[in-house]
Amino acid sequence: xxxxxxxxxAAGNWKxxxxxxxxxxLDQLAxxxxxxHVDTLICPPATxxxxxxxxxxxxxxxxxxxxxxxxxxGAFTGDIAAVQLRDLGASAVIVGHSERREGHGxxxxxxxxxxxxxxxxxxxAIVCLGETLGQRQAGDTLAVIGAQFAGxxxxxxxxxxxxLAYEPVxxxxxxxxxxxAQIAEVHSSLRAALAARFGAAPAATVRLLYGGSVKxxxxxxxxxxxxxxxxxxxxxxxxxxxxxxxxxxxxxx
Length: 253
Ligand code: PEP
Prior knowledge:
The structure is a single chain. The protein has helices at residues 24-31, 46-56, 82-88, 98-103, 108-120, 133-137, 141-152, 180-198, 200-203, 219-223, 240-252; strands at residues 8-13, 38-43, 61-65, 92-95, 124-129, 162-166, 207-211, 230-233. The protein has 253 residues and is of the alpha/beta class. Strand 7, helix 10 (219-223) and strand 8 (230-233) form a beta-alpha-beta unit. Strands 1-2-3-4-5-6-7-8 form an eight-stranded parallel barrel, surrounded by seven helices. The longest helix has 19 residues, at 180-198. The chain has one domain (3-16, 39-44, 61-68, 80-252): TIM Barrel, CATH 3.20.20.70. The two termini are 18 Å apart. It binds phosphoenolpyruvate. Residues 13, 167, 172-173, 211-214, 232-236 line the site of phosphoenolpyruvate.
């Protein structure tokens, strides 16, 4: 299956931003005509998932979460199980975002367990991978991404419920993005890693997102890179106009 047969995906990550009043942004997104061949997903903070679903109702806009626990339930104060997210109506969950890997000490093994838990609950697992600036400058990018893939994307995962997001840590929230050649190199290495793990045909169905300072003014060139099937968007997803412009750029790519 070629890239043309994968549905594109524009996913927004609101991080720890947003109050009930900000769901008006979703009304704007939901009422705009969403391109039929692009999946659009917003992952608001957990407090807003339920009301966000009400705002998105009747539209093609899907709602996801930013994290889940690796266990299905139990004595884990403050945590949220994947099955609880699914119960609300969420369809996807981000796991292994660098802000969780760095800020919460999440290891590849934990990210793998979370991805497994997400899929067991019927959620699409969006697994994030990415190198730090020091690792890129040391020439270690492909080795770092390869190791994160090996540890975070176990062969037991279902490729049909899997999305990978390449998010260089230094590009997140910084306004910096890698060169298009650097994005292409990592995405092609991830496609090869997927093929080695799941077989060529299942691997070809997995969407590969680029994430890190995607904005309306750079989206088109990023979406022109081979094996980029969409974006994971932080800051620009908070504003409906900016996110819509990114969705339109993806639709046109
Ligand atoms: C992110 O955190 O997933 C992200 C890509 O953020 P930003 O778009 O703000 O760089």
